[in-house]
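Page 47, continued from p. 46.
Same chain as before, 213 aa.
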Amino acid sequence: MLIGDERLALRRRHRLARRRLSASQQWLHAQAVRRFFLASPLAWRSRRIAAYLSVDGEVNLRPLLGALQGMGKLLALPVVERSLQLGGREGFTPRRSSNRMSFFAHRLEAPLARNRFGIEEPLPGTPWINTRALDLVLAPLVAFDDHGHRLGMGGGFYDRHFGGLSDGLRPLLIGIAHEVQRADALPAAPWDVPLDGILTEAGWRTFSPRMGF
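Result:
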């Protein structure tokens, strides 16, 4: 089977697996992820944290984000294919990029809009956050393996966006998933950006010394 066909089959299998989780299982997993993250060194040493809002059976990060916002962390969400205005928040001048994804500040009580994928995003006019100013990114995924490989939805937004940054400039990239999304081994492509760690309801898997634990 070609790698592209194999990835498509894996996406179907693991998306179905997470959709089959009951509401109570989803709630328990969200609470476990919250608990494990807040007990880690990342909870106190990270000041600027990018995350996502769940769709299609992804782990719900709202309980964790509520705790992080209460701790005074700056939260950010990804926005795809939006023209950027001059005068970025972190002292850089943002420009429209072929990466097609940028991060914008977010507070949980702020209104949101749905993009063409049905994913909620901050409204236009929200402050832009330079990726190099982020400490870590909590990334959604469809499947992962124990080698730090991540399989996304196929749009390539995360790989293109972070693939252009060196390890020294790239924030920690942490995949968030349910255990049912673990694969024995994922077919890797040259452009895939490896994860520094994975967090599921079962706890942490770390792949990079940058994690610090």
